What we know:
By secondary structure, the protein is of the alpha+beta class. The chain has helices spanning 25-46, 73-83; strands spanning 5-10, 50-58.
Amino acid sequence: FDGRLDGLVDVVGMPLPRALPAHDDESWARQFDLVLRHAFLAVQLGEPLLAKDSSVVFVGSMGGILARGGLALSYATAKAGLHH
C-alpha cells in the first residue's frame, strides 16, 4: 500500500433466510454487525491511509430497497441502513 489507499470498496453481506418468528436478538445483531458495523470499521480503520482524493464505495443490495416478506428481514433492513 505504500502507506496510502486510493480507494476503499466494501462488499459485505449474506442473507440468512428465516421466517419472522425465527428472528432473535442474536441473529438480528449478527446481520447488523456484518453489514453496518463492518462498513463503519472499514472506514474508521482505513481513514488514516485514505488519500484526500480517494473514493469509498459501499455495495448495497436490492434487498435494501424492495420488501420481500420476512425471509431476509434482518439482511434487507441492514442493507437499507447502509444505503442511507
